[in-house]
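Hi both,

Apologies for the delay on this - the queue was longer than expected. I finally got the zinc ion-bound model through. Below you'll find the protein sequence and the ligand SMILES exactly as submitted, and right after that the C-alpha cells for the full complex including the ligand.
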Amino acid sequence: MSFKKFCPKCGKETDKLVGNECLDCFLKKTKLFTIKSQKILVCKHCNKAIIKGHWEDLSENLIEGEVASKVKLNTDFNLEDYKVLVELQKMGADEYEALVKIKGFISGNLLEQEKIVWVSLKGTLCDSCMKLDAEYREAIIQLRGKDKEESEQMLKITLDLLNKEKAKDSLSGTSKIVELKTGFDLWIGSKKAAVKVSRYVAKLYSVKLKVSSKLIGEEKSGKRKYRFTFCVKL
Ligand SMILES: [Zn+2]
Ligand SMILES: [Zn+2]
C-alpha cells in the first residue's frame, strides 16, 4: 500500500511534485524561460538575412533557429535534457508569429511551457549587394535651384537631413549624386526617407513638391515595383 500525495496548494492528488507543489501550480507562477519579439534584417535584393553577423539565405528554418537561439532559460532551476521548439506562422508579408515551446526535466518531472512572440523582417541591403549595386535606388530627389549656388545650398540641406534619417535606416543615404546643369539628382535607397526629406525641403523653400513614378518591374509576388521621383523646383 502506498501513501497518496496531494498538492498542498490546489489539493490535487499527484506523485509529481516540484518542491512541494504540483507541476501545474509550479508552472503557474514560474517562467522556465524568457524570449522577446525578434527583428531580422533581410536584404531587399538577394533575400539573405543577417544572422549572428553572417548573411544567410532566408528560410523558415533559419528564422526558427534564430528565435530558438534567443531563448534565455531561467537559471533559478536546473532544467535538464531540455528541448526548444519553434513553430512559425506567417501573419503578413514581413511578419510571423512564433510559438516557442520548451520541454525539459526538473527533479525527474517532465515540464512544458510555451510563449508566443512576434518576428518581423526588416528590409535592408546586405554588404555585397550594397557594393555590387551602388546604384540601388527606390527614389530620386531632384533639387532644382534658380541658379547653381541655390542648388548647392539645397543639396547641403538635403544631405544633412538624409544623414539624420540614415542613423535610423541605412538605406536612407544617397547611393549617387548626379550633378546637372539644372541642379542635382540624389539617388536614395529608401522611398520613405525620400518622401520625408523632399517634403521638408519643399516646405522650407515654400514650393510644391512634384511627385512622379515609373514602373521598373515586378516583384516575385507579382506586385508592381515603381521608382518615385520627388522634385523640388524653385
Ligand atoms: Zn497544485
Ligand atoms: Zn543582398
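Main takeaway for now: The chain has a mean pLDDT of 90.

I'll put the files on the shared drive as well.

H.
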